[in-house]
Amino acid sequence: MLSDAQLRILARLAEFGTEVENSWDVPRALSLPGLAESLGVVRSAIHAPLNALEEAEFVSTRSAHVIGGGSRRRTVVHITEEGRKQIEDVGYVSEKLGKIIGPIPDSSILHGREVDISQVIDELSEGGCVILSGLPGVGKTSLARGVVDELISSGLSVRWATCHNYSDPANIAEQWSAKSATKSLAAIASSISNSRTLLVLDEVQELHVRHAAGVEELLSELKRGPSSVLVVVRAPSPLGEMKGYSEIRLGGLAAESGSQIISGLVDENEAAEISTALGGHPLALHLWSPDDELPARVEAVQEYVEKMVIRRLSEDGTSTLDELCLAPFPLKSDELFENEGIQELDESAILRWTDSMVEPHHLIRNVRRGIWRAEELADLHSIGASLWEEREGERALQIEAHHRLNSSEFDAEWLSDRLQQIANFDSAAAAVLIEDAVERSGNEVLREGAVDLALERGEGRIAESHLSEISDGPAKKLRQARLARIRGDSQTANRLEEEALEHLPVAEKIRHKIKSIVRRYDDRLPGKLDPQLAKELSESISKISLSQLSDSDRATATLSLNLMKHSIALQTGDISQSAQARGEIESSLGSDHPSLTSLDLKASLTIRTNGNATSDAIESSRIFLENCDDQLQRISMIHTTLEAVGDEPPSWLIDLHKRELSAEIRDDLAIFRRLSAQLWYWRGVLEPHNRLSHWQESIHRFRAAECSDAARELLDRLTQSV
After folding, report:
1. How far is CA 89 from CA 49, 82, 343, in A?
2. pTM for the full model?
3. Which of 20, 365, 515, 577 is the most buried (most CB within 10 A)?
4. CB–CB of 286/349 below 8 Å?
5. What is the pLDDT of residues 625-673, one digit of tens each?
6. 87 and 11 in contact (C-beta within 8 Å)?
7. Quick check: helix, strand or coil at residue 232?
8. How many CA atoms lie within 13 A of 188 on its CB side?
9. What whole-number distance in Å separates Cα of residue 576 and Cα of residue 327?
10. What is the rounded distance in angstroms from the CA atom of residue 582 to the CA atom of residue 565?
11. Where are the alpha helices (DSSP H) in 203-247?
């Protein structure tokens, strides 16, 4: 008869199909450390039951490459056909009814946590919200995973997100939804929250203060919805007082339960003594080795980690650990410059894995960081910066920036020059980096960059806090005007902009005036241009004098104004004006410029029969869109075509629109921010069942794009439709 440990091993192995038996790359869960984690015991404790299973030919072992586990081959275990028959005969494998979305860690057997799991589940019942807190390494994540296992067996779905230093609400929502997600807190809550869903947010203490307030607002928004929410955090929490959330603090294991983690290595009495000496701390027990001396008191767990766990590592193991401890977030093992110690760290239970991403357990990381003096830490970051400098790509640049910022060679100008590139890749990371850089240097150029980034992200409160520290002048007033528009105060924005323009050079003044005209044109929902607005825009255009500009600046400004004239003329049905503007544009661009095709197609789509564009114009649009590589032109044409086809858009147009919504759109240019807002508006039109969340997102993006009129009008429509 098989033991419980043997049945658990077979049950875990049976979760994988036969296709992995001959694979070159196999999941880490089939390695010895992975199996030990799933059983909730130290690795050495699985040798006896595993050997017995292999002798009975219920499992087989071989050497293979473990995904994410470095370049060295490692011992992996597979269940045999006889093993599958054994586990099926006893009915040990349970069916999971609910689904899990997000980067959830592997489940493991928990010892002595039955009461804790029941308490958390009771609090989560009927939409309850819980904060699960405790010391690092005490098993908070494992307990949350155990709660999930219980709830999905009852049919509940679970969405899991794990925080790191750069996480913001949008990043969390992306993990919860497993796709590019919304940024509006209201839209996030509306799109993912329902009564049969548990939302888990793990490692909240890793949040940077830059994003903590936003995450706190998101959690408060979720509290008002039907979903249950489980927040997992180590003290001290970066969150303030969370009203409506009950807190459960997780302590160490009882001696009997803790001793089960090292069962089989020593006798029961000694195991209980060891558990007591380590305060029933699960991670410390997993790290324990029979050769280790025990601390004399419970408070000495960190001392134990430093003196026993870290000091017994080899040079390779220490180098790999140090690189991981210095990184801003989990890395892939093949990203490491010093990865020879991955296997040693893994077998020593020092690492946390999520798919192929790896980091040290935070207790280990914190202890290791605490060993270094400030000068040593800065030098290590300098080395890290020089290494990552040699790699290409935005992710490498982001990590290099992290190291440069924390080194003794921080260069404010270097970060300022690269901030936008980092922001285009990951604006949440850029926000943290610029915030830390401003805090460290007080550099005004960096602070201006922090304001601009906050405005692009629609974070008015943060922009305002930095604006108060910037020197007075026209640049400050222009930023204050942007902030006022984000907040819906167009009158103040216009006044501030006019005051600023008086003190700007001619070329810059004209550039801002043209940008203002384009923004006012875009600050509306789809539909016919209001005649009064059209008149005001035309008058503003006529008042702009280009005589003092250089030839190149005059050419650029003339083209921009003619494009605006053409758009206004099409909207108002002024055929003569549109033809004249089109001629001027052709003179500027040349008769074979591809943009002319787009202009002509938009003109043909404005010609309506019974309220809709002609079938020839719609077909021409389809052909154009299938061959257009320019994202700006493509999205703009999709929107123009949607307006032209009436209430029943063709499936190909709906599909094209959906594809654009899932693509990355730049946040650093106002025109793209406005297009993004319009995309979400049209998504709400095309998907009425999701209109609430889609239009909430559109409103948020319109505000971030300084289109307060469009945001206000859409909010009115949304309110009326609810």
Report:
1. 19, 11, 36
2. 0.89
3. 365
4. yes
5. 999 999 999 999 999 999 999 888 999 999 999 999 888 888 878 899 9
6. yes
7. strand
8. 30
9. 62
10. 9
11. 209-223
